[in-house]
Each structure stands twice: as structure tokens, then as C-alpha cells.
UniProtKB/TrEMBL annotation:
<feature type="transmembrane region" description="Helical">
    <location>
        <begin position="178"/>
        <end position="203"/>
    </location>
</feature>
<feature type="transmembrane region" description="Helical">
    <location>
        <begin position="143"/>
        <end position="166"/>
    </location>
</feature>
<feature type="transmembrane region" description="Helical">
    <location>
        <begin position="6"/>
        <end position="29"/>
    </location>
</feature>
<feature type="transmembrane region" description="Helical">
    <location>
        <begin position="215"/>
        <end position="239"/>
    </location>
</feature>
<keyword id="KW-1133">Transmembrane helix</keyword>
<dbReference type="InterPro" id="IPR056119">
    <property type="entry name" value="DUF7702"/>
</dbReference>
<keyword id="KW-0812">Transmembrane</keyword>
<feature type="domain" description="DUF7702">
    <location>
        <begin position="8"/>
        <end position="243"/>
    </location>
</feature>
<feature type="transmembrane region" description="Helical">
    <location>
        <begin position="41"/>
        <end position="61"/>
    </location>
</feature>
<protein>
    <recommendedName>
        <fullName>DUF7702 domain-containing protein</fullName>
    </recommendedName>
</protein>
<dbReference type="Pfam" id="PF24800">
    <property type="entry name" value="DUF7702"/>
</dbReference>
<feature type="transmembrane region" description="Helical">
    <location>
        <begin position="73"/>
        <end position="90"/>
    </location>
</feature>
<keyword id="KW-0472">Membrane</keyword>
<feature type="transmembrane region" description="Helical">
    <location>
        <begin position="102"/>
        <end position="123"/>
    </location>
</feature>
Length: 265
């Protein structure tokens, strides 16, 4: 018996995101695991995709509501991690522009919609794919709210990227490639964002769905979802490999600061 379109997509994910996870792990080791540096979010992109692929493969032979919920949640987590990686890299760029950059508190605030979106995604997927069929409508509402919150972070990434380019003369030379990496990823991030919006608002599971077994939906998911995250992860990995790590400075008045002066390698 041949492989289904869903299984083929899962195998492709495994083939790409396993080495991407290793590369991301190296970047976390190189740059540091701190949230502000952004690299641990890149690691999460790969990890969430791998968990989703493994869960999906297992669910083909042993389908359960728990596996379906996990798979759907991992797709939402992947989008959140993509947005958070870009946001954290922009935070680093803006911090190096001081006093011309945005304050770090802005980025801390913008991580909140993503966090709430993740929580709503878990609740929504559980309602949608759980044993209680009366919660389906509520589940869709929660997923729609989650996508709207992710959209807020996405728009913020675009606006902050524009702000960085307006102030590009103040950006440290070694940090500019991080800005260019985020800017280059935005078109692919746009496609990924549109896919999530269509999945919850279009009501066309034949075309836009992360759980449909229809081959057209799997193809669209592969192109607009998985491929976009793979391209974005590749862009960020290359940027991380060619950017020097920040140096953690001694604490001053209880505040942790970084020296972004280390230039690209």
C-alpha cells in the first residue's frame, strides 16, 4: 500500500527539520539561549514541526483525538515561533541602535499576544477535536481569536522592520544582516500568515486545512505552511551562522545588558 499525501508531507518535514534542528541547536549554543536573543525560538520552529510530523505519522495508523489535537496545536506553535523569532531578532537590532531604537519594553509587550494566541490555540484545538462535538463552534471561535492575535504580532514585525530601515544608519554593521534576514523572511511569513487566516476564516477545508486528508488541502498546506516555515528557518539559520554572538556585559544597577559591538564573522 502506497504512502498517502499526508504521510509524504510528514516525511519531507522530517528530512528537512531534523538537520535544521541540529543547526538551530548550534546557534543556541553559539549565541546563547536567552529569550531576547531569539535563537531559542528558531529551535522551537524546528522542534514543533518535528513533533507535528511524528504525531501525524503515528495518527495515520493509530488515530486518536489526542494525536489530532497535538498535531493541530503544533501548527499554531510553529507560526507563533516564526513570529517570535523575527520579533526577537528585531529587538536585538533595535537595542543596538540605542538611543535611536525602540525600548525593550515594546518587544516584551508584543510577546504577550503571541503567548495568549498559543493558549487559545490549545483550547480551540481541544474543543474542535475533542470528544465533545458540541464544542466545535466554540473551538473555531477560539482559533479565530488566536490567529487574530498572531496577526497583531505579524503586523508589528512589519512596522518595526520599516522603522529599522528608516534608522538604518544607526544600526551596527554586524547587526544589519539580522535586519535583512527578517526583511527577506517577511514575504514568506505573509504567505504563512495568510494560510492560517484562510484555514479558520475561509471555511474551505478542501483547500485550506491542516488536518484534512484531501490531497489538494495537503498540497496547499505543504506549500503555504510547511515550505514557508522551512524557507524562513533557513534564512534565520544562515543569518545566525554569519553573525557574531552578543557579549553579555556585567550587570549594572540590576540590569542585564549586551554588547552588540561584536561584528559579523
Amino acid at each position: 500500500m502506497g504512502l498517502s499525501a499526508f504521510e509524504i508531507l510528514d516525511i519531507i518535514e522530517l528530512l528537512f527539520f531534523v538537520p535544521a534542528l541540529i543547526a538551530s541547536g548550534y546557534l543556541v549554543h553559539k549565541h546563547g539561549y536567552r529569550k531576547r536573543l531569539g535563537w531559542r525560538f528558531l529551535l522551537m520552529i524546528c522542534l514543533f514541526r518535528l513533533i507535528g510530523a511524528v504525531t501525524s505519522l503515528v495518527a495515520v495508523k493509530h488515530p486518536t483525538s489526542g494525536l489530532t489535537i497535538t498535531y493541530d496545536v503544533m501548527n499554531s506553535f510553529g507560526l507563533s515561533a516564526v513570529l517570535s523569532t523575527a520579533l526577537a531578532l528585531l529587538d536585538r537590532v533595535e537595542d543596538g541602535m540605542a538611543p535611536h531604537g525602540l525600548p525593550h519594553q515594546v518587544f516584551q509587550l508584543l510577546h504577550l499576544p503571541s503567548l495568549v494566541g498559543i493558549i487559545l490555540s490549545i483550547i480551540g484545538s481541544t474543543s474542535l477535536f475533542g470528544d465533545n462535538t458540541t464544542d466545535v463552534s466554540t473551538g473555531f471561535s477560539e482559533l479565530k481569536a488566536a490567529v487574530c492575535l498572531f496577526l497583531v504580532v505579524f503586523v508589528a514585525n512589519i512596522l518595526i522592520t520599516g522603522h529599522c530601515f528608516l534608522k538604518i544608519s544607526h544600526i551596527l554593521p554586524g547587526e544589519r544582516r539580522l535586519l535583512f534576514a527578517v526583511a527577506l523572511s517577511l514575504p514568506f511569513m505573509t504567505v504563512r500568515m495568510i494560510f492560517s487566516i484562510l484555514c479558520v476564516f475561509a471555511n474551505e477545508p478542501k483547500w485550506f486545512s491542516t488536518w484534512s486528508l484531501n490531497w489538494t488541502a495537503v498540497l496547499v498546506h505543504g506549500i503555504m505552511g510547511v515550505l514557508m516555515e522551512a524557507i524562513i528557518a533557513t534564512i534565520f539559520i544562515l543569518a545566525g551562522l554569519t553573525t557574531a554572538p552578543a557579549t553579555l556585559l556585567p550587570a549594572h544597577e540590576g540590569k542585564v545588558t549586551y554588547d552588540w559591538g561584536a561584528r559579523s564573522v
